[in-house]
Each structure stands twice: as structure tokens, then as C-alpha cells.
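lol forgot to send this yesterday, sorry. C-alpha cells for the thing we talked abt
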């Protein structure tokens, strides 16, 4: 396989080894260097598929410095692959600074499609998937979690978070505090692995299940929250009003209300009524 000189972004399985693509294996076999988040961890995967390509470590602590060395490899005509411990690189994993510097140096970055825990979990969650936001890991400290969740409380999109097993109870407790006990959520654990589980219900129900079963406090976790739904008697959020007001400067109210509703996931009739009542 003759590869173009480029940085290849190669997803690896998040659990089930059968999820790696034949193209990913071909690329990893034919690049001159594989940059790994953890060479020991990735070495097990690469050995399983008989891939003997030279490896180098690229992680949060050395990424900026390592990038210039990798760019030198590209300048010598050597294609390079980037992998993380599992899933798609850069999604809550190292790689952003490397990709930015490689592009700035004028070299191609070629992405391969593949496993991603957030998208895989969302597809099976039963929550709205037409509009969503991936927020990565919530802050470790309670105040930071509360502040972040408060910022997202009125977001109408499905919210997706990663969480570590030793913080899952604390994070669900913060969600209970900020989002309310009745917010619908789904917690996906160990997706594609032997002990894969999906817990569905309200925040309160899922938190109770996690507290009652220590096994739910182990492994890789994705938490997905239904977006905010405006109640009939609830005030329209300021951010929505601002959008409606700006649109009304260029469009008739009816059209502006429809667009603002589409942007924020709200009913256009409520926005149209607000506009009439407030002279927009």
C-alpha cells in the first residue's frame, strides 16, 4: 500500500477488537511511524494485528514538543499515523496541537472514520440525536461541575459527557442538583465490551441504580442528558430572545420566530407570540 505523505488520524476499537477497519490496519502497517497516547497500551493492540511499525509516545505532556519532530518526519517524506488508547484521536484525547501544527506546516491531515464512544452510545440511547453537544469530561471539583451544568441547563440539545468511574456518583449528584431529578438521562457503560450496560430513566432513577450497584461504578462511562424542554409557563431564555430580536431586524416576525425556534429547539408559536407581545 503506497501512502501519501500525511498525518493519518486512525481510530482504534473502544472495546471489541473486531471494530477496527481493514483500512486502519493497512494504514498502520504502511506508515513509517505511529504516534501513540501510550506505547505500552497500544503495543498490545498493534501486536494483536501483527503490526510492527515503529512507535513513539505522544501525550498531553510532550505533544507540543513532539509535534516539531513529527513534522520533520513528514518533511523527510515519511507518512505518520496518530492513534489514542481507544476510539477516535482528539476526542477528549491528545492530538489537537499536533494536527494544528502539521496543518500550519503545510502538510495533509487525513482522517479515517471509526469508533467513537460518544457517537456509538448516542446512537443507542433513545435520546434525540438530530442536535447534540459533546462536552467531554465535567470538571473534577464540585463547584466547577455545578457551574458548567448551570451553563448548559437551558441548552435544548442532547448533552453528552464522558465520566470516570470514581466520579460518576458525584457527577450524577451534580446533575440532580442543577438539571432536576426529572431530567431524562441515559448512562452507557463499557460500550462494545463484555459488560456493556445502558441505564435509562430520570437523573434520580439512574443515580439510585448506580449507588445500589457498585458494578455501575466501573469501566468507561458515557452520560447523555435530554436537552431542556420549555414548559408552557416557563419564561423564554434570554439567549433565545436575543436571537429572535436579531433576526427580526432583517426578517418578518413569523420567519424570525421559525428560525429562532429551529436554532434553539423551541416551538415557533411561543416565540411568535412573544414577538407580538413585545413589538418585535
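and heres what i got for the seq, position by position
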Amino acid at each position: 500500500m503506497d501512502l501519501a505523505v500525511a498525518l493519518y488520524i486512525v481510530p482504534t476499537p473502544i472495546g471489541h477488537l473486531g471494530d477496527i477497519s481493514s483500512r486502519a490496519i493497512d494504514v498502520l502497517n504502511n506508515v513509517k511511524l505511529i504516534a501513540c497516547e501510550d506505547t505500552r497500551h497500544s503495543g498490545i493492540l498493534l501486536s494483536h494485528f501483527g503490526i510492527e511499525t515503529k512507535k513513539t509516545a505522544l501525550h498531553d505532556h510532550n505533544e507540543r514538543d513532539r509535534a516539531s519532530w513529527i513534522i520533520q518526519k513528514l518533511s523527510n517524506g515519511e507518512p505518520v499515523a496518530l492513534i489514542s488508547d481507544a476510539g477516535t484521536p482528539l476526542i477528549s484525547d491528545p492530538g489537537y496541537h499536533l494536527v494544528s501544527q502539521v496543518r500550519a506546516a503545510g502538510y495533509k491531515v487525513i482522517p479515517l472514520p471509526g469508533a467513537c464512544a460518544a457517537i456509538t452510545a448516542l446512537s443507542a440511547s433513545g435520546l434525540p440525536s438530530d442536535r447534540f453537544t459533546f462536552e467531554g469530561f465535567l470538571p473534577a471539583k464540585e463547584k466547577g461541575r455545578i457551574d458548567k451544568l448551570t451553563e448548559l441547563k437551558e441548552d435544548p440539545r442532547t448533552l453528552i459527557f464522558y465520566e470516570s468511574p470514581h466520579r460518576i456518583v458525584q457527577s450524577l449528584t451534580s446533575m440532580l442538583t442543577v438539571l432536576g431529578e426529572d431530567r431524562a438521562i441515559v448512562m452507557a457503560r463499557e460500550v462494545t465490551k463484555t459488560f456493556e450496560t445502558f441505564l435509562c430513566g430520570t437523573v434520580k432513577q439512574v443515580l439510585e441504580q448506580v449507588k445500589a450497584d457498585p458494578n455501575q461504578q466501573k469501566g468507561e462511562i458515557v452520560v447523555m442528558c435530554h436537552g431542556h424542554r420549555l414548559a408552557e409557563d416557563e419564561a423564554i431564555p434570554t439567549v433565545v430572545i436575543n436571537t429572535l430580536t436579531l433576526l427580526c431586524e432583517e426578517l418578518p416576525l413569523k420567519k424570525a420566530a421559525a428560525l429562532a425556534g429551529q436554532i434553539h429547539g423551541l416551538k415557533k408559536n411561543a416565540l411568535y407570540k412573544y414577538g407580538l407581545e413585545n413589538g418585535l
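Residues 232 and 270 are 9 Å apart (CA to CA). anyway ping me if u want another try
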